[in-house]
From TrEMBL, chain A:
Keyword Magnesium: no
Alphabetical list of InterPro entries matching this protein: ABC3_permease_C, MacB_PCD, Macrolide_Exporter_MacB
GO molecular function: transmembrane transporter activity
Domain ABC3 transporter permease C-terminal: 313-430
Leader sequence segment: none
Protein name, entry field: ABC transporter permease
Membrane topology, from the record: Multi-pass membrane protein
From TrEMBL, chain B:
Keyword Metal-binding assigned: no
Gene Ontology molecular-function annotations: transmembrane transporter activity
Xref: Pfam families: FtsX, MacB_PCD
Protein source organism: Rhodanobacter spathiphylli B39
Residue ranges of domain MacB-like periplasmic core in the record: 34-260
Superkingdom in the source lineage: Bacteria
Name by which UniProt lists this protein: Antimicrobial peptide ABC transporter permease
Membrane-spanning residues: 15-38, 294-321, 350-371, 383-402
Protein family (similarity comment): Belongs to the ABC-4 integral membrane protein family.
Keyword line: Cell membrane, Membrane, Transmembrane, Transmembrane helix
Membrane topology: Multi-pass membrane protein
Amino acid sequence: MFAYYLQLGLRSLRRNPMLTALMVMAVGFGVAASMITWSVFRAVSGDPIPGKSSQLYTVLVDNRGPQYNDNGEPPEALTYTDATALVAAHKAAHQTLFFNVAPSVLPEGNQSLPFIADGYATNADFFNMFEVPFEYGGAWRAGDDDGRAAVAVISHELNQQLFNGANSVGREITMDRHSYRIVGVTAHWDPKPRFYDLFSHNAFGDPVQLYLPFTRAIDVAMDTSGRNNCGSNTDFGVGREAWLHGECVWVPVWVELPDPAAATGYREFLTHYAAEQQRAGRFHWAPNVRLRGVNDWLDYERVVPPESRISLMVALGFFAICMVNTIGLLLAKFMRRAAEIGVRRALGAPRREIYRQFLIEAAAVGLAGGVLGLLLTALGMFGVGLLFEPEIARLAHLDLSLVATTLLVAIAATVLAAFYPTWRAAQVQPAWQLKSN
Amino acid sequence: MTMHPILAALRKHKAGVVLIALQIALTLAIVCNAVFIIGQRIERVNRPTGLDESNLFLVSQQWVGAPSGDDAASVEKLDSLQLTDLAALRALPGVASVAPINSLPLLNSSWNGAVDHKPGDTNEGSFHGTRTTYYFSDDQALSTLGLRLVAGRNFTAADVGHQGFRDNSEPSVVILTRALADKLFPKGDALGKVIYVNGSTKPTTIIGMVERMQVPGTGTWTNSFVWNATLVPTRMDANFSRYAIRAKPGQLDAVMRAVTPALYKANPMRVLDDDSVRSFAQIRDKAYQADRGMAILMGVVALILLCVTAAGIVGLTSFWVGQRHRQIGVRRALGARKIDILHYFQIENLLIAGTGVVIGVLLALSLNMWLMSHYEMTRIPVLYVLTGVLAMLAIGQAAVFVPARRASNVPPVVATRAV
């Protein structure tokens, strides 16, 4: 019976082409608008590290005091002093710190011009904490951090550019005129949003190309290419040493705490640390510290661009109107066939059969709308480049799950919209219809 | 014509009436707010920066293996590198004027702080100045950027100093935008007055005022100080530098192409990539990309919505006309003129659309309120809502016209047939 009803439904699509076209277009446009904005939204609001997001925390300590901090919130990164002290304390299972660097890289053989590559000056824990995959070699050892070794990890992309993708472990790379031994090459790694690098507003930027030990970068006086926030306290003296040990924040710190008990313990340690700073006379205020998990941090930093949220809302509102429109048109379409329903009912068809026939017919409309929606979604994927910054727009793509969702949403929404018209169709009194004919 | 028969007929089609009214209400709510958002974005994109933007471009570059700029000797070394670049650029044919500068309006890379007419007191922490952005440049800044000096004088070569970028020494003279000067000195007598930069105790004299200059940031966080700029006659010495260049009229493209080879010739140990040389038009394009996209999206959505709603009205009214074929025939047979039938459907639509827009206005205002509480939006002006109401009523009338005319063409003889 299902196949027969579906055939009837598809045939009835052709019966009032005008009405059908209106419905299919309404469903198609509605579902396409929703799917395009949804594909962007799901990309920017997704969990970047699903297996571990509940175990990673960023550490924040208020070094400004109630008068200068951000409405009671500590600054979004740590000072060099706090970052190095907290990492050296080793109170978490793993802890990492980093800052953004942009050294000039000189290709081998002095043939071509130097170029700038973005990277992180960090420690060995960074790689296992953030699950960085390796193509060749691996992370440097913890001993290299303490030994301030001239070692580096480069990305798959940089390895392609410099060594044509060959295993470059053990070879040298020249950054800012210093030479580093390559110990590892990462596979392509690009979590989005880049939750650990929000302080420098790099949630959706290009992935970094290289990594070198934090201690080494400090030794060679490499400057941060990321944000450096000194608040309103600019009285830190002159020169690099004064700045390094001053109260400017520029070093994000992350810790890995396997369970809530460890998080509670770490929070206590952090409060204790701030209290110690207060006793030492550095802070003139009560400890004000934060331990923010990955998702908490993404929310706090408002990573999802307002454009994405507003356009999703508008698209959903648009879809709702299209569905209201579809209810009206289905009502018109079904009630036009009151006579036909009357005959079927008079010949003994129970109401249930009428429900089945018309819901299946609605599903056929939904399917047609879904196919149109799919075409429009594919077209719209080119258009998102107009709407969002390129680094966000390229996150939107048509994959299998989006295709399935588009069709499913179109059919489900149309069937849902058909409930009321179908109910009305099933209420048709056979006697009335037969009499008036 | 009395309303009674229309109302009585509507009561028989509750579902259709509710659906059309609801659709009109939702459409009005969304279209009003969408058009309002478009208007706001257009206004934002069109605000002038205060610069003469034609023929202007920016070069950003970084030296390879340059000193850190933390001691006097390395600052001098960096400054000589910068002076070499400036000389090379100024010697290029087609160049009207060049100024070193740390940023430009719309570039989204800024150096911000606060100024006040009281000296700072580091012990008390009581410094609450007016927020401003700093542009570090030299005596060529005004002519290169095309800023209009409205009071006082321009910087002279003697005013221009240079310092390492981690050196916080305060300048002795500055030029402010009029907006900032008026905020600090509401009486309008800022010229020649003394201010204190970033809570310092060293006085800085205001020697001039420019009409207008926007801050580099375009995010909403800059809304409170978007016209508060301070020009400082200081070359910043770091391992990178930026140069604003004004080409002679008609020679922008040629000069932009000539810059990279000229700089490499002056000193090859540097990095210049694809993004290093950008015209101001490109900078503006990038800065307002999201705004433009949002306006386009809202426009497309509003347009499709209006079409969908009009189509919905046509569809349902056609259905009603078909259903009432015989009643229309009877009315015609009883003496109703074609125009009466036409008016009947038009008034019916006006009633439904009228109910719809009343609900729609309430929805539009609550949607606007919700947007205001969650995003940086302002209250929607009454004019937008009124225009929306009139537009919705007009669309309703236009959509109903075709089926209504079909109804008015039903011949009276239908009444006698097929009983």
